[in-house]
Amino acid sequence: MLKDDCFLGLDLSTQSLTTLVVSPRSGVVRQLSINFDESYPRYGTRGGVPTLPDPLRVHVDPMMWVEALEDVLRLLQEEALTSRIAAMAVSAQQHGTVYLNHQAATTLAGLDSSNTMASGLANIFSRKTCPIWMDSSTSPECREITAVLGGDGAVARLTGSVATERFAGPQIRKFWKEDPAAYFRTEHIALISSFVTSLLVGRIAPVDAGDGYGTNLADIRSGDWSRTALDAAAPDLRQRLPRLVIRDEMIGRVSPYIAERFGFRPDAEVIVGSGDNPCSLVGLGLIGNLDLHGVSLGTSDTCFGYMAGVPDVERTEGHIFGTADGHAMFLVCFKNGSLARERLKDDYGLGWEDFSRILMETPPGNHGRLMLPYFMPEITPLVLDAGVRRFGRLDAADAAGNIRAVAEAQAMAMHLHSAWVGKRPARIFVTAGGSGNRGLLKVIADVFGVEVQTIEVNESAALGAALRAAHTLLDRDKPAMGWKELWESVESGARTHVIRPSAEATRVYRSPGGLLDVYAACEKFAIGQGPDPDAHIRAFRGAFMEV
Ligand code: XUL
Question: Is the distance from the beta carbon of residue 333 to the nearest atom of ligand 1 less than 6 Å?
Answer without folding.
Answer: yes
